[in-house]
Amino acid sequence: MTKNTLLVSLALLACSPLGAQHFSGGSGTAGDPYKVSNVADLAELDSLVNVNNAKGKFFKLTCDIATPVTRMVGSEGVFSGHFDGEGHTINLAIESEESYIGLFGTTTHATIKNLIVEGYIHAGNSVAAVVGNPSSGTLIENVVNYAEVTGKVYVGGVAGQIVSQKKGGSVGVTVRNCVNYGTIHGQSIAGGVVGYSGQQVGNVLERLVNYGHVDGGNRRMGGVVGNPLYNDVVKGLINMGTIGNIEISGVMGNANPTTQAELYYDCQYSPSQAVISSQCKNTAQLLGNAMRSEDQASMFNESYWCFEEGMLPRLKMQGQEHSPRAVLYATPLLLEAGNTVLDVNAPFKVKTDGGVEWKAQNGKVEITSTGMAYPKEVGQEVLMATYKGYSRSIAINITKVSAIDEVKADDRLHGDAWFTVMGVPIQRPTHAGIYIHNGKKVIIP
User: What is the pTM of this model?
Assistant: First the structure.
């Protein structure tokens, strides 16, 4: 090899420090994206990001990655490429003491879409299952999180800390059509989907849903978003999950966004004393077509949502809304009006048709084959629902045991008469509640 040839070779390597990319195929263009199909491909993506941010490159997830992913993409760089999960799942197992941690650490002018993540991620500040620190120009769309996320400050299921600053005409971040089912632990400024959003450029947060559990502190924490700020546009948020204490807001932990609309939460699942610009609804008010709007400008019309009788609404996500886990989390626990998960003092109903099975882990609730549930003992109980190999749990606090055992044994109830669940005879029901008629339990909406 001549000296000139050697210099040319070195120059080529300098322009492409990793040499030729391999992945599982593809050339990195929009028409022929790099194919990501295993942990090794994700490691190669991390290396590429650390060298040149993968700017302008396109990536496609071609299958589920069940092998636990223990390192994030962008360990020493900022991801500026475009990643399409194509509806596949990545299993996370990330433990770190560092901050800005997620499947993707920090992103700018990036796109991450059509992705499902599960497993767990435990780290410091600015932590999320998908992007720890999305910044200027990033789009996160059609993303589902089932992973447990634990961090200190700025913690979210999909995005941890969104920071978009005015530097050379920077634009905000858009997080759209995203759902969290995972448990989110944060000491402060945390939310089911987004932990923190703000700084100098407005971000767009729209059609974000939480079915999971948000736990931890009480400072700027919300069921969906912990802390939206200033010029943010926040629309179409709904929390149908649970919260760890009543000082966590039902939807948003701190409300300063310029535009905010259509914000709802289940106040029986998430009883809160820190409600900010949101509308409380009982579980029954969320079922079936109750949330459906004919107004196409609404975030809650059938263009975006799947409405099914007796079920909680499910955000349309290219078919992901029909997955077993999505169906499981949309299957309701129907508490008596006036009851919340913190104060259960009357029999209630669980939906069992469709194949969902419910069990009381501590034996303090008796659940019949028809789905009627009768509190038997005061104290903490965990209700476990299972469906097609998946499970979820809802913790409740029983504050009163009804006299339903005596009512069930009373032969008078087989006549044409109405009784309360306490066994008190009445003429006919005059308000919503659970009654006994002809020996059967009846729910009057």
Answer: 0.86
